[in-house]
Amino acid sequence: YTGGAHPNTIAYGMTIDTEKGQQVSISELVGESEDTAISDTERAANFLKEEISANPDTYFENAEASLDEAEPGMIGCYLGEDKVIVFAAPYAIASYAQGLMKFDAEI
């Protein structure tokens, strides 16, 4: 027993190019140039910062700042059907009771 009330939950998302059978970034799939392409984690962080700014009472006080230091498995995104699914693991930006938070974002 390590004293914790809840387990450490992490989540990973990936987008697969079904024609090539390889994992790809959303930037690759939407054809962004190397100059404008960002990682999927950075894409998730940018979306979540906007969400937190729009609804600050829903999230931890320091949630926006913590996104810059998010460890692997705490935030991410993947391509859904005509949208990007952005997610945040419990404790990443809000309480454990919020659970795995998922949002639909425009491509």
Helices and strands in order:
Layout: E1 15-17, E2 22-24, H1 26-29, H2 40-54, H3 63-66, E3 75-80, E4 83-88, E5 101-105
Antiparallel strand pairs: 1-2, 3-4, 4-5
Characterize the structure shown.
Helix content is 21%, strand content 21%. The strands form two sheets. Strands 3-4-5 form a three-stranded antiparallel β-sheet, covered by helices on one side. It has a two-stranded antiparallel sheet with strand order 1-2. It is an alpha+beta fold and 107 residues long.
Short description:
The chain has 107 residues and is of the alpha+beta class.
Give average pLDDT, whole number: 93
Major pleated sheet: 3 strands, antiparallel
How would you sum up the global shape? Answer: globular
Low-confidence stretches: none
Largest sheet, order of strands side by side? 3-4-5
Q: What percentage of residues falls in helices of 4 or more residues?
A: 10-25%
Radius of gyration: 15 Å
Number of helices: 3
What amount of the residues lies in strands? 15-25%
Distance between the termini: 44 Å
Number of strands: 5
The structure class reads alpha+beta
N-to-C SSE string, H for helix and E for strand: EEHHHEEE
